[in-house]
Amino acid sequence: MNVDGVACRSIWVNADGCSIDIIDQTRLPHAFVVRNLCTLQQACNAIRDMQVRGAPLIGATAAYGFYLAMRDDPSGAGMEQAYQLLFDTRPTAVNLRWALDRLKAALLPLKTTARAARAFEEANRIAAFDIDINHAIGCHGLDLIRQLAATKTPGESVNILTHCNAGWLATVDWGTATAPIYMAHDAGIAVHVWVDETRPRNQGASLTAWELGQHGVPHSLIVDNLGGHLMQHGMVDLCLVGSDRTTRSGDVCNKVGTYLKALAARDNNVPFYVCLPSTTIDWNIDDGIEEIPIEQRDGEEVSRISGKTADGKVVDVQISPDGTAVANYAFDVTPAQLVSGLITEAAVIDASSEAIAAAFPERQRQ
Amino acid sequence: MNVDGVACRSIWVNADGCSIDIIDQTRLPHAFVVRNLCTLQQACNAIRDMQVRGAPLIGATAAYGFYLAMRDDPSGAGMEQAYQLLFDTRPTAVNLRWALDRLKAALLPLKTTARAARAFEEANRIAAFDIDINHAIGCHGLDLIRQLAATKTPGESVNILTHCNAGWLATVDWGTATAPIYMAHDAGIAVHVWVDETRPRNQGASLTAWELGQHGVPHSLIVDNLGGHLMQHGMVDLCLVGSDRTTRSGDVCNKVGTYLKALAARDNNVPFYVCLPSTTIDWNIDDGIEEIPIEQRDGEEVSRISGKTADGKVVDVQISPDGTAVANYAFDVTPAQLVSGLITEAAVIDASSEAIAAAFPERQRQ
What we know:
The structure is a homodimer of 366-residue chains. Chain A has 366 residues and is of the alpha/beta class. Helices cover 39% and strands 18% of the residues of chain A. In chain A, helix 2 packs antiparallel against helix 3 and helix 5 crosses helix 6 (179-186). Chain A is globular, with a radius of gyration of 20 Å. At the A-B interface, helix 7, strand 8, helix 8, helix 9 and strand 14 of A face helix 7, strand 8, helix 8, helix 9 and strand 14 of B.
């Protein structure tokens, strides 16, 4: 998608042909800073320090990190070290492990001299694969937006609410929930996006608003509290969110607050769709509320907020009284019955065990 | 309620017996600053600059402001000017008008020399009346908490979720939604409060957390996104919120985001009660969603946040990209069917036209 009018991805091969460039997302939205990764350690730091975030982008960064390691030490010991150091950066990220396993399996049979080149190829394939998947999600979602646009009078926009950042910054390109939005906008369909700020880490206010603004998609930042009111008043035509983990029955674990928007959508007959690559489906889990453990994070994510002061410095400020106790669960689960449909790379399908199994027959357990 | 272990109200007569003290709520939670009001103009500024906020407290402050004016100029012209200047500070505040009308009606028949003393009496009565009402709400709500406490094993707390600040800082004492909580705590019942931070103005994080902390009530600050997850997991026994305006049918207009919590409460069978003085009932309105206009406020309330830096300074920081459009509706409406009951000064009643009319027969139109 565009940044300053120029097409950009979240990770790419530097013009030198062998090092890797990323956008330092910890600096957004106040500064656009590109960082060059030349070593395994730099790739590990980029993931650990959350300069890159979002499961698909973490996977791609790990793959390129593995490649950078192979340039320095393609021995068996070098592979083991690269795997372990990269894996330890964010041990709960599913795509990270998937990418590392794929690299390891591809390189292990090769002579050491062939490993760096093959790792580079594989990393490029992993990145391209992510782009293809998001593009397919975008095409399926575009059909939905097109149908809604057909019900509008000229000049009226399709109003889409999204939560958190399931945008191109979380993937290699397009994003998941944003892919249909970018495609609709690029196709000349009038869309307007309500961007939930997404407390506590404000990924909506800092990342989604930045993405949409850079690409020229009309949008309004709102507090997480507002979506219900907007839906009550017919100001939302469609909710599009991402998924961190989807059960085989269609329950969706996503950034905390997603469930509240799904409740409001049902109460006001607003379609609520979840955009996800099938890789987020956890075939071992049926009941998301009972079975998915929800990560508790540092309370300072809630009690402190980062922002730009009048003189342009970015600082942390404390918003609550000294010593206030905080509870900070990072995700919640939206039960399948609140989900209008899942927009996957294969098709738009019902959020049900039957539809999911039918869409991805090769992926099921047993 | 207690501040630093000493009982405190939000407004009181100074030890000099004739000037008025308030807590400057714009400085909370980072500093506890008492301001002394000696003139009409100081009272107007305190209301306009939101050093005092919350409908009942604004009403009491206006009444004391009228008294301060009468000390300087008790003439008819002086009364007119005091009325107008105070009314213009926050023209949409219902209690403000009610207090001013009451003062005006009481003073008009009197000789000018008698007006200041009578205004002082009336203002004290208005403040005492607010305390009585909140105390009555607290007693009725306490019964509910007591019933919930009876279902707990020893050592378990009753978990109560609240939104925004319907606390003693918004009234003269006790608060509305907090009155049952303070009474339960003072009665030795183990309670724990989930405090919604309440974006965009963070009244939960800055005021409710401060109040509860000062009085020693166990509580945890949470983002507005979290309540649904907590209710899904049985971690909320009761929701208690306030009301800015209640329709005669029981729809509740309160700080934006209240509706989302009510939806989650219904979905998880959590009792959702609204604490309100009957003065917030608008007898002219039936359908809250259709008929209550929702105030849109400055977008900077969303894009900028105030907090304390590491070196103790309180500053504003910008959290979104430069120039991001913002939509900022301040309230939403929770339909009566999502409300388990209204806790009023008269009794706990159903959120229905019939129950409301029966509880306050003298207040109805006609």
